[in-house]
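USER: My hope is that you can spare some time for a protein that puzzles me. I am handing you a single protein, as its sequence and its fold in token form. Walk me, if you will, through where the backbone shape changes along the chain. The protein I mean follows directly.
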Amino acid sequence: MVLATLGGTVAGAVGVAGAMSAFGPEARKVTPAASTSNHVMFNGPAGQNARSAPAAPAPQPRVDCHKLKCVALTFDDGPVMDTSKVLDMLKAKKARATFFLLGMQAVQFPDIVKRQAAEGHEIGNHTFTHAKLQGAPAGTVLSEINRTQNAIKGVTGKWPTVLRPTYGSTDKQLDGICQQHKLSEILWSVDPVDWKDRDSKKIADRVVTQAQPGGIVILHDVKPTTVAAVPEILNKLSQKGFTFVTVSEIYGNQLKPGQKYPAFLGSPQAGLAPYGT
């Protein structure tokens, strides 16, 4: 959603404006589900709000991103049917990724969410209806986040610990809510603008050209042209020696609730956790 090819904060400003037009008021009209209490502790005891047997994730080897060229591929706005194709591609390369789910999509495709968890991918919160959180009433923010937390927890048995703010837009209120409910805010450092340029070659070229060790790439598995670009992204970054990990692994599983990673939108590198963590 952000134009990383232009670099830095200019990229953030341009991409956010474009992304908002892609998800404007007419783009996603849904019938809101019954809202749960705003006082639910999102990351509460595991027995709360469980709706189905949790998907047991496959054990994963520990990755040291200080020694390896790590990059985190992230996918927003799903799951959709094409997400299964992305999972097939990742599995073939033994690659892990982070999926930021819309709650309304997680409810529609629980089997795909289960598969994501079972295959060792990280699952994050991207609101329920893709509502903008920055500047929204606290009740709206809590409802959007809470309903998605519950939807994902009900399928996987685990509370998400990472949240991607819609449009990359955040504020102090959201920081506080995320800190209270044990959620870290995940931005990005590479954006191939796949929401705008529906060209698989351009998407793949931009990711491969701009990827750096410790980078976070934003993609959208709801776009068929993006799904078509994934094999080339995986192949070419593999040839360059990159290891595909989750966002939490980039930071040595030391993410802090209420903080943003990377520190600002469009920064050239996400950065790594300190040595020894």
Observations:
- Confidence is low (pLDDT under 50) at residues 1-52.
